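Q: Structure for this?
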Amino acid sequence: MNKILKGRGLSGGIAEGEAIITSQPFSISAAFTFPLIQFSRKLKVADRTHELYRKDVGDKILIFPYPIGTTTLGFVLLETIHRGIGPKAIVCERGEPLMSSGAVAADIFFGIQFPIVDQIDFKELEKIKNGSIVRVNGTEGTLEIIE
Amino acid sequence: MYLTKEEEDILSGNKGEMLSKLMKLIVKLGDSFGAEKLIDIVSAHTVLNFGLNFVNAAANVLHEIAESGLKVKVRTTADPIIDMDYSEELSVVYPMFTLHDQMMEDLDKIGIRGFTCTPYFIDNKPKFREYCAWSESSAVIYLNSVIGARSNREGGLVDIACGILGKTSYHGLLITENRKGELLFRLSPDIDKNDLFNLTSIGLIIGEIAGNQVPVIEGLENISSDYLKNLGAASAATGAVALIHVIGKTPEGKTLEQAFQNDKPKEIIDITMNDIKQVREKYSTEWNKSPNNISIGCPQLSRKEAIEVINKLEGKKISEGINFWICTNPEAKNSIINSDYNRILEDSGAHLTSFCPLLTALPRPLTTNSAKTCFYSNATYRNIDDCIRIATEGWYNE
């Protein structure tokens, strides 16, 4: 039986993919704005102060403790969701409305679902290995570790 | 959450499809974060106005809102826009503003006017305890900390939805208990507290450590509101800090007891001059050659700050090949340009602009006195006097 971690669903939908985990708080604005401006096909983290710098997070399930940074992050996330180049879902310990707004707006205005789940203890999230296959259910607020 | 009959009506679509979508956005976010109800706001401020080519999806939504004929109910301002006075100097960045014209038209239709990241220096200045829906992290932290009005860090688009509905969801920093200080920062005696470069570096450190908690600073009771603006902007960049109490300075931090709401800090952190040096090394990009651009401000300077910089340029000349940007709000810019200070600007060759300081970054190398710009761009981070020295006397190695 797969391990299922229970948290809170901040934005609905289901996504499955490879996990990429960082214990460093994550600035979506600092990480994604430049690749978006350059119309990059791949979403490599552009935040040079982050340990995921230059890592491709496209199609991954991005896991971090909590989001930081300036308030453009909602529509920056909306843009990555709309272009389909970003991660497939986000899981964190403590979410905030700012980040959720990008995903909720994607659903309301474009009918695209991008699950976000928070309120899972980072000690549990940390145990997940990079590259493990996980399934995020934003409607139920769960993270299932598949392999 | 509890909704009034009128709010239910809007949500169900009886007042139009677009208004229903905007209400859905606010209610969904509020529900996720445990809001019990919506609350009336007096003011909004949006970051959804840059017109840069990376906001297509949000710009499409903005256009739909404008087409639907909806207008803001409360005073709503927006972040800075491109400054056409410098089309030549900014020729590298202008082609990126492909959405600018359409967005300006749409914002105007919706009733959003006044373009600055410091709306509190123009006529969007809420009062103590008033509820607002602001984005622009540096403005939110100023609003909450210095003015004592209340806003969560709303997002671009959500802020406009709130402005149109005249409401936001009641949670987070709108509630007194959530404004309680959590971490206490103390400053070691070797720190010169009158030096802005130290204060903005302290802002970087506090943001890193506090994350999204509420920091309290002891020992800065004489800090000016302008300096606190710059310190706060740094904390809002390296962290998600939206409120800082400064003991003896900010309205909810008159005493330690008030700042911590009679509770104890979760942690006490001492900041030393060595910490400040380390954080500068961490974030500053040392280009080791003369910059193409030097950006002063971020947040935009107050009128007083801009004049202080201009006065420092008296009798000096910006070197060939360097753009020296002094960024302030459009009203301050106009008033300064129409004053005697304009002579110093013209003689020195510095540019006074209402543009976003963060967007004056290209082409690099870039030098800045702003901790926030330094965090978001690959910039060499120096104090204002060094920035002027580099601009007028050339690059130097320390």
